[in-house]
Amino acid sequence: MAFVLTFLIRRLAQGVVIVLLVTFLIFTLLRVIPGDPVRIMLGPATTQAVVEARAQELGLRDSIPEQFVRYIAKAVQGDFGESYFIGETGIALTAQNVVGGKGQDTATEQREAKMTRAGVLKVIADGLPYTLMLAGMGLLFTLLMAVPLGIAAGLNQEKWQDRLAFFIGSVFISLPNFWLALVLILLITARAGLLPSIGYKGFGYVILPAIVLAVELAPIIIRGLSMSIAQALQAGYVSGGIVRGLPWRQIIVRHVLRNSSIPMLNLFGVQIGGLLLGGVFVTEFVFDYPGVGRSTVQAVLQRDFPVIQGVAILAASILVLANIMVDLASTFIDRRLKF
Amino acid sequence: MAAPPLLDAQGISVDLVRRSVSEPILRDVSFQLRERQVLGIIGESGSGKTVLSRVLCNAITEPLEITAGSVGYHGRDLLTIPAAEMQALRGREIGYIGSDPGSALDPTIPVGHQIVEKLRAVQPDMSKQAARERALEVLSAVRMPRPERRFDEFPFQYSGGMMQRALIVDALVSNPTFLIADNVTQQLDVTVAAQIIRLMHDLRDQLDTAIIFISSSLAIVREIADDIIVLQEGRIIERSTPEAIVAAPEHDYSKRLLERIPRIWAVEERAQPKTEGEAALLEVDDVYKTYRVNDPTRFFGHNDVEAVRGVTFNVKAGENFGIVGESGCGKSTLSRLLSWIEAPDKGSISFEGESVAKMNRRRLLGLRHRFQLLLQDPYNAMPPHMPVGRTILEPLLIHGGMGRRAMRNRVLEVMNEVGLPADIYDHLQIGLSAGQRQRINLARALVLEPRLLILDETLSALDQVEQSRLLEIFDKLQAEHGFTYIFISHDLAMVRRACTRIAVMYLGKIVELADNHTVFFNPGHPYTKALLSAVPTIEERRYDAAENLLEGEPPSPIGIPPGCSFNSRCPLAFERCTTDEPGLESRGDGRISACYWANASEDELIAAADANRARRAAGEASAP
Question: What ipTM did this prediction achieve?
Fold first, then answer.
């Protein structure tokens, strides 16, 4: 099993490089696209001189590589900076709150405001449990829908099960997630009052957003699963199994499903990682669900650089780790695979 | 005949049904199988052999459909008994071994575990432990080396021959009353195939199992069968015995089948061209190639695969030089080195007296003009979306310096030379036969007017008739343009017909190099004899497999032990062979052989074989 160790060391090293590259890309893009966080922070009434002074203070006027090196040096020590806008208590520090609008002694108020800015790690830690719960429920619903349909379709190619799965997949993939979210809010919460949504006051608030996620993810799993099962059925060990005297059920359960799980795992690692993350951002924003995704969308709108960078590192790390685990799991199922 | 037949197939017809159009696959096939009989069924691909084998165990699936017939077995009809009863017979009383050992088992589960799974599926009352013991017992019976360890290994860790052995175990483990063996040797190397046939022969004597042995090769079937059925386009056209069908085939089709079996010894030999004193066209001097692969069992470990280990030979202009060997002997790596797709790690290759390694890129591109490589698979070697003419034209575009009209004329000229009609110039390759595709492949190489053609299994995918036609084209081109050919192949019969000098490779080395006649009539290396004894043929064998072909397979090219690589399978090996590797010894007239017995007399060889036999018997006796 030495290869597991070799594999982990190699892949983790690669992963660090990937995360660094992603961070650098996000870091640079944030600073070259239009939109100045200081201007948003201080409001339109502030003079250019105050804005410049504040920007200097935050180090935003240094060259990008300089800023990046400074950021990374702190990040490796666990300091991801502080949000420009979110206070320690979770209350948003808007231009009004910070500057007060009175124009008197703004410097002291700013200093106070700076004292109460929330750390990026805290922003993420506050939202992460909610996001994990949403993602978990979303995946659960996805699997509940997609696995039976995908298996039935794969085992019955070109029969009604296959057509049904294709039909459902086509419909689901055509539904935009934000539109579906709004429709569900309107019909289920507002009109029928069956399930709560908007915000979070209890477990019931997870269900509708999770369904929206599941509708987005299910078609890919259905398609992937039915294709890999149909392909596995063509393999020699299936026709061979019949003449060797293995019962059909056993061939399916012990061999076909086992072999088709490898492409499924890979699909999970690559596709689902990306889609799930993207879907979580949009869904949380539409449902005003208090997770990392909502904070991120807000941060993007406000140009809250430290939060965006922190989430980018988190997202990239999750993707890298998920793929390493997927590949490792695959090698245990099929020993021919040695990544 | 007093005893009732074990199996009584009557009037079997099978159709291929696609969109309500039926196409006949089998028509009115009837035969009987007696207890302990070995019934051979031969026919070309597409004659319905495999479908028939599946009918016998009632494993026909869509789009195939059984339209008539019955298979009587112990008073019941296998085609109409309930599915559950058939399920109980399949794998238990009816054993089945297919042609593709590589894919017959689940690649993700150890082989032994799958044999146990099967055994317990057909005998549910058997305990896991008992099933395991039974599987190990049969693994030892088929002479699987180290069965305990093999039991837990995965299919990809098995060679083709070992896998086929494991599948024989899988079929026999439940003591079936009859066994269906469908083309079991098709994908195996000759020496391995011969071992498998020998094994089935032995097993048949030990067990009370009747065998239906299906193959496309009459030469193989006649080795083992008591009776033979010839199948053509789904019908039985002749029933005979092996002796009778070889001596006097009745049906025209059987006669044709017989004629198409290549002869090994009774072949008109090619005259050796006058090459005395001429400079060599290609000089290969002590080339090595080692590949590095990851070793999953060690931390950051890797293994060296020694693919080519010090190969030296010269090819003179106008020669037909052959390189033969079995899978894994390094011949494909050598062809990659010769055509300079890869550079050797050590040693040099010179073309027309100039070392290829020392050439710059431009010079090398110019040189590629003059040597061309032709591969085995004509389907994947060409872009499918490109018209025939354009495909052949491609090299002229790459090497440049010709006008449009001139290029077109050159292509048409070459197409004519290889026997392609000019009117397919603008056609796509779809619908062209393998032979025609291989001609396009050849034309594409010839268009540059090369001097040397390296043919890596180029004729292997073609049938005998098409092979002969292409060989004639090769001859004609050689006469007109003075080409030199290097044939790299596993096919001894083809090399026998086509080559003037032949090198035999084993585990990355040339073990024998001699003229065609010597290699086939007076080989100096025991491996050459083993190869010759294993080739399926209908001629009288010059070399007896029982004497020349021992059990075993070539060692792994990773961590090759000292001594002669062939010593583990050599009937002449003695102590020194396990420690010191013999160099290539001259046998006169440019014939060389890497064996201590290269120049031994007949008596010395017999004495060596006797000594070796005694040594092996002693070794077996002392083994636990």
Answer: 0.80
